[in-house]
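Subject: two folds for Thursday's group meeting

Dear M.,

Sorry for the delay on this. The cluster queue was jammed most of the week, so I only got both jobs back this morning. I'm pasting them in the order they finished. Each block is the input sequence followed by the predicted structure tokens. Could you check whether the formatting survives your parser before we put anything on slides? The first protein is the one we discussed after the seminar.
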Amino acid sequence: MTVLHMPQVQGRLTQAAPLAPLVWFKSGGCAQYLYEPKDIADLQSFLHELDQAVPVMALGLGSNLIIRDGGVRGVVIRLGKAFAKVTCTDAVTMQCGAGASGILVSSTARDNKIAGLEFLRSIPGTVGGFVRMNGGAYGGEVKDILRDCDIVTRDGMLTTLSLDELHYSYRHSELPDGAIVVAARFQGRPGEPEAIQAEMDRISASREASQPLRSKTGGSTFKNPDRHKAWQLVDAAGCRGLQIGGAQVSEKHTNFLINTGDATSADIEALGEEVRARVMAQTGVALTWEIQRVGETK
């Protein structure tokens, strides 16, 4: 990839940065540039000065993502500890940095007697990703708790978007292209820490029993189609345990793909497409990827 002119930064800017260590599948190529901003002002300045033709994408915990083997052109932006703070602004509202994990948000809510955010405990990602994808599990979705969010747009402007402005649908929002979520306000309801913890424990135990959490995986692979569960369709098409190269459909939960050790991102993506083809042939239902797939093929 060619060398691009990069603005001065206060954070960290790395050229040809390997991304495989930063994503759950542990596969894929490099970022042309990986930028870890010092704070919001640093991010604003960087995006304002960066050539508008250079693509940018945000990277959270890398849990719901395939980075293709040829890497990602432009700039991958990773929000670190400066963006991971969680505080209470009133009795039921949480101010959450985009880099904060679901576990941190739900635990802080519990400690402050705020119920309704327990489901975030089960989503392996960060606030920025939850907001972008309307993340959800165990009966809750971000649209149920989000009041508003702060974004830095591609030109470096800091803007607040209301819930209505995101136009949420299932696992989808209408965030502006190139926008980076930097913070969000979540609203719960009064609750008791013991009951909140009990619900978090129930969710955690259910995940442990049903999902391959100790594997190199990417979370739920396909969205649930109307009136169907994706895992049941995959299972009915005979795909449990199906393997391409080092990639395998999980035996434990068939809507999870796993890297058994040496899978390339091409293996993982090809396996997902083979599953989609078999489900279509068997049931006539078109599965839609929930996992994001980004970058260049090799």
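Second protein, same layout:
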Amino acid sequence: MPGIRAPAESAAATWPPLARFIDFENRLGERMASRPLASGFYEFLRFGLKQAWACLFGGIVIFLLIATYLFYPRDAALARSDFLFLSMLAVQGGLILTRLETAEEAKVILIYHVVGTVMEIFKTAVGSWIYPEPSFFRIGGVPLFTGFMYACVGSYLCRAWRLFDFRFAHHPPSWALITTSILIYANFFTHHYIVDLRIGLFLLAGGLLARTRIYFKVWHVHRSMPLLLGLLLVALFIWFSENIGTFTRTWLYPSQLQGWSMVSVAKLGSWFLLLIISYTLVTLVNRPQPFHRR
């Protein structure tokens, strides 16, 4: 945006629509920095706002699930599932057109969209869960909006990577992450026919990332935490979102057909493993950079 210079340290400066806000926020931050108590509160608030911004696509999807469950006409000519598909398609297109997602990020999100849809087709075929409402835009028993729910995870990781300027210590090599992700993905299919290797995959992923620390910049300095802890926290929020999805009867597990109940906590493990796949795909675009102390 002409005449406005976004601060160089802002990872969000690559988004022209945010340039004016970034300029305002930079001036506000300069005032807060001189007040120790206000500075701590401001960094906490800034962390929350960045997280909310990173969740933009996912937040819109959750809003659509709840709003259509409560207000969408049951007798509408366009089925709710098809409305969700067209709405999510429009949102994804809008993010790309407004440059809130880059072309490279969109490619990764598309790949994860396809990866998720393929697994959905298989899982619904074997009865792991169902989509109870009719739809026109579907493959087998899977409405096409479902791929966008997987894309939410990829979108969050891509956006958070830029917003928090991720750096790493002791990050595993790409080949190790790719190999682990392939094994995880394969097990989601093969465990229906042979022994479930999930426990071994937890140990493999845990050993691979045990020493890895992620450094994230909320304001002026990088904070850090174990990457495994960060992934577990993200998996927990995905599990919360899944409970919203089943409560709104967007999809249902066999145990929920006679009445809603919370999704099993055991599903946290599944989401953690799927998150490893998401993270691996994102690292193919955003190459992990080492953290250097200054």
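Two things I noticed about the second structure. The first helix runs from residue 19 to 32. Residues 1-11 have pLDDT under 50 and may be disordered.

Cheers,
T.
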